Amino acid sequence: MTLLSIEGLGITFGGIAAVKDVSFSVRPGEIVSVIGPNGAGKTTLFNMISGVYRPGSGRVVLNGEDVTAMSPHLLARRGMCRTFQNLQVFQSMTVLENTIAGYHLQESGPVLADLLHLPASRRRARAAEQGARELLRRVGLERAAEREAGSLSYGSLKRLEIARAMALQPRVLLLDEPAAGCNAVETEEIDHLIAEIAASGVAILLVEHDMKMVMRISNHIVVLDHGEKIAEGDPATVSRNPAVIAAYLGAEHAAG
Questions:
Q1: Quick check: helix, strand or coil at residue 124?
Q2: What is the mean pLDDT of the chain?
Q3: How far apart are CA 226 and CA 17, in angstroms?
């Protein structure tokens, strides 16, 4: 069963094609990684899928529904959430408060009930806090719940961002370089977390430069170069592909 389908997606900026006719799919519980050299179009592709950019061609289909260019908050309501390469964390809020913020999009109660602190509002707040604490336990941050987010290490902040995205109960989770800037220990913690999330049935779409991590956890890999898909397949197949080797290391190395 395909949960997310990318069909012929493309976009141009100033007459230059940044992404050209890219297609692939992601199934529940699958980790699909998009890789490529700097400037290959990976983040641009992510921005189109997640509603930040409007594609010039093609479409994005989520669980059978065409969601092309749908705004990010509407995509989140339909089960697609995203983290960013640059951290989007409220530094002065506590770790727990940051995670609870992820539940707000799911709330549907009347604003007046919240303003008056009615019983229904208090029940929702308790449920959000309970859920947030459980998510922090899953990502290994339960002991830091009451600390200001700005006091955490970079790797811990990355895990906090994933926890907040998981508060939206996504069916598809887009992770933009979740291990960027992390040391080896932090990277290992994050790839274990990603594998655990996928094992729960969430479809993962990943952009990452750490090739060891990509090869270790991916079920399927899509390779971009100059905005075009040049290869795809399982990690072993992709790692032996001459076009992929040439894109990363140069044509002479591939020929050798």
A1: helix
A2: 89
A3: 9
Q: Radius of gyration over alpha carbons of the chain, in Å? A: 19
Name the amino acid, one letter, at 83.
T
Cβ-contact 52, 68 below 8 angstroms: no
Other residues' Cβ atoms within 10 Å of the Cβ of residue 72: 14
Tokens of 4: 């997310």
3-state SS, residue 127: helix
Q: Distance of CA 67 to CAs 5, 71, 122, 220, Å?
A: 10, 9, 34, 23
3-state class of 206 per DSSP? Answer: strand
Break the chain into its structural domains and give their ranges.
4-255
- CATH superfamily of the 4-255 domain: P-loop containing nucleotide triphosphate hydrolases (3.40.50.300)
Question: pTM of the entire structure?
Answer: 0.87
Contacts of 155 (CB under 8 A, 6+ apart): 182, 183, 185, 186, 187, 189, 190
Work out the average pLDDT over 21-48: 96
The predicted-structure confidence for 29-42, as pLDDT tens digits, reads as follows 999 999 999 899 99
What is the pLDDT, as a whole number, of residue 117? Answer: 56
> Per residue in 88-138, pLDDT tens?
788 899 999 999 988 876 655 554 445 545 566 677 788 889 999 999 999
For residue 24, count other CB atoms closer than 10 A to its CB: 19
